[in-house]
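In the current project phase, our protein records have gained a structure token line. A sample record follows, to show the layout:
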Amino acid sequence: MAENMKEIKERIDSVKNTSQITNAMNIVSSTKFKKFQVLTLKSREYAKTIGIAFDNLVAGMKSHNYEIFDGKPEVKKIGIIVMTSDRGLCGSFNSNTLRKLEGMKKNFEKENKEVSVITIGKKAKDYCKSRNIPVDSEYTQLIPETMFEKGKKISEDIVQFYLNDFYDEVYIIFSRFVSAIEYSIQVEKILPIEKKEGLPNKEYVFEPSEEEVLRSFIPKVLNIKIYQSLLENSASEHSARMSAMKQASDNAEEMINKLTVKYNRERQTMITQELSEIVSGSEALK
């Protein structure tokens, strides 16, 4: 019985140590989440305004025969930008995104289309390599200070890949931040760019030309879209990790309480047994 009590005590100590770790991670994730939440919400309105300005600009163009809007005659090569985290311990955050990637890949392959991936986050990179999914570029360890520049490089690369027929269509998978306890998986086709219908057809003067304006403006618009997606994904990641660590801490606390009750019962049983032995011994001496 004493050995059983020792095992229970060791389990209680082990769970307490785990609880300290999950509590610390919850605090760290909470701090990072608040930072990314502010960045995401502030940038969201800017990204929306840039998108509206671009849609109005495209509606006012005189020439409409642009491959980047009209698409390729035949779609055979698909590029997918997939965003995950570098680290785990964030519940089903990464698995939901990778499941979506796997589903898209299977659907495109049924249509005899080639699929390759640009990975953002170590989890996506490792997943693709373990399943022999072609990876064209990989980005890890992104921090707020470098996200905009990385988004710029990715946007410039995918435009060149598209114009050089390396990709016929480009999609992006990321988690859109909703609240501290909710996010949603988003899939968007970013190339070719879909022209919005029903916008007012204003006349613009393009200098030096429509082609030059588009060549300069499109990577910037995509840069903002990818940068915003990176912020949304990071805010969702930290909210998911914060929730997961809080749940883990609550579970640890519940387990400690159950083990403590069990330990006390074992201790009470041992004390009762010792008292019974003492009483029996004293009765025998009479």
